[in-house]
Amino acid sequence: MGKRLPVSILFLALAPLLIIAVHAKVPAVIVFGDSSVDAGNNNFIPTVARSNFQPYGRDFSGGKATGRFSNGRIATDFISEAFGLRPTIPAYLDPAYNISDFAVGVTFASAGTGYDNATSDVLSVIPLWKELDYYKEYQTKLRSFLGRPQADQLLSEALYMTSMGTNDFLENYYANNMPGGRASQFPDVGAYQNFLAGIAEGFLRQLYGLGARKISLGGLPPMGCMPLERTTNMMGQRACVDSYNVVAADFNGKMNNLTEKLNAELHGAQIVFSNPYFALMGIIRHPSLYGMSVTSTACCATGMFEMGYACARRSMFTCSNADEFVFWDAFHPTEKTNEIIAKYVVQNVLQKFM
């Protein structure tokens, strides 16, 4: 018989690579949020807020429409890859994946959601509290899979990312002027910002209580420059809606203040503010610097108002080269824009975790 291998060598040979990855500085990326970071959870709930059909995903590996609201990968996919992990982060509700996949990255995000429960009600999507419930379920599964000590180590070393808030304003606050709506409850948008900031703080405190230590709180983009908002700004000659951009910038200031407050109060917490506002605005103002040329309309269909099912598979207007466009549909960036934003966030904010 051949020489018998030591048990330790056998273990290393047979153990999944993901278990070894627990010893990486960031062994997993765990994501909460809206369509900016949803990899397909909405495919598995009864909602119209979906994108698991062509032309979505046409530039994704295999041309697959996964449920990501883009022509290809989204920002968190690129961030995962930058940390030496997998090039895509799977959706928690997708039965094609299991806990061995989720152990190195998972997203609980749901397109159409926000901080406010009333926002998730608009399109019947997963509210933030439910995303957190799924995370608790994930923790249980991970401990069964890896064993509690190793799972808890992974959970404490993982990078937690959040990205939401745009829908709270554009799909909820500004879209519903009915009595009882948020705009009637909070006539001053600043008061609504404070309401959302309070929810964000409670969420981050809960995450910390569940073991999270490295947390990236995502900011808002210049939402007044989304093609949908520009299309409806006819009086302003379809320029960016400055008032919406001011709201986004103000809210980002409050989110940044929140990170400073929590870092001072939560022992061992490393909470950073990942602000995409200026990076995206730079692309919109100077697209040629990034090899782009179209900023006011999107690639999909006419590019003026379509997203989701309105991005028809056979639309004769859909562009042939999405890399020339900042936006893929009227609300979401192209893969190329996502990659640029991800690189900016990694280099300027997340570098401390590498």
UniProtKB/TrEMBL annotation:
GO molecular function: hydrolase activity, acting on ester bonds
Annotated signal sequence range: 1-24
Alphabetical list of SUPFAM superfamilies matching this protein: SGNH hydrolase
Record-linked CDD domains: SGNH_plant_lipase_like
Assigned keywords, A-Z: Signal
InterPro entries found in the cross-reference section: GDSL (IPR001087), GDSL_lipolytic_enzyme (IPR050592), SGNH_hydro_sf (IPR036514), SGNH_plant_lipase-like (IPR035669)
Family indicated by similarity: Belongs to the 'GDSL' lipolytic enzyme family.
Name this protein carries in UniProt: GDSL esterase/lipase
Originating organism: Linum trigynum
Lineage: Eukaryota, Viridiplantae, Streptophyta, Embryophyta, Tracheophyta
